[in-house]
Design brief:
2 domains
């Protein structure tokens, strides 16, 4: 037995260290799984797109998945690549206040910027200088419920 007055903390501290190591390993595994999933998702998105198919396909994948629908999707996002040009252009077209928030420096409202990019695209317009589309392509996955 030790004379250290904190010896009683050794078991819970060891447990804390074990849990930290397990957490760190799980985090790395989750990041790797996410990266693998996104890579496969991009591959499927591209294959569905290049096949000239409808934006979706429904197939029976067998057990344990059953019938699954895969649908190509694109979410429009905007990206400010030239801050000064974007600020100037948005002031000129009267959209500056709507797309930014008060701060010591100009900060863009991401949702408003995304909606603006989508609106411009839907009307066949041109984005102002300093702003470009940054779409997120993905595949939505819908499993058919058993018994339906």
């Amino acid at each position: 037995m030790t004379d250290d007055p904190f010896a009683y903390l050794i078991p819970p501290l060891r447990k804390l260290m074990e849990l930290r190591e397990a957490r760190d390993k799980a985090k790395v595994a989750a990041e790797q799984a996410e990266n693998a999933f996104r890579a496969q998702e991009n591959l499927i998105h591209d294959q569905l797109k290049s096949a000239g198919r409808q934006p979706h396909v429904t197939l029976d994948l067998g057990e344990p998945y059953g019938e699954v629908r895969f649908q190509r999707r694109v979410t429009p996002y905007g990206r400010v690549y030239d801050h000064e040009a974007a600020v100037e252009a948005l002031k000129e077209i009267g959209r500056f206040e709507e797309l930014t928030m008060p701060a010591t420096h100009v900060k863009f409202r991401q949702k408003a910027l995304n909606d603006f990019v989508k609106e411009v695209a839907e009307h066949g317009g041109k984005l102002p200088p300093g702003i470009e589309p940054a779409p997120r392509e993905f595949v939505s996955i819908t499993r058919k419920k058993k018994g339906t």
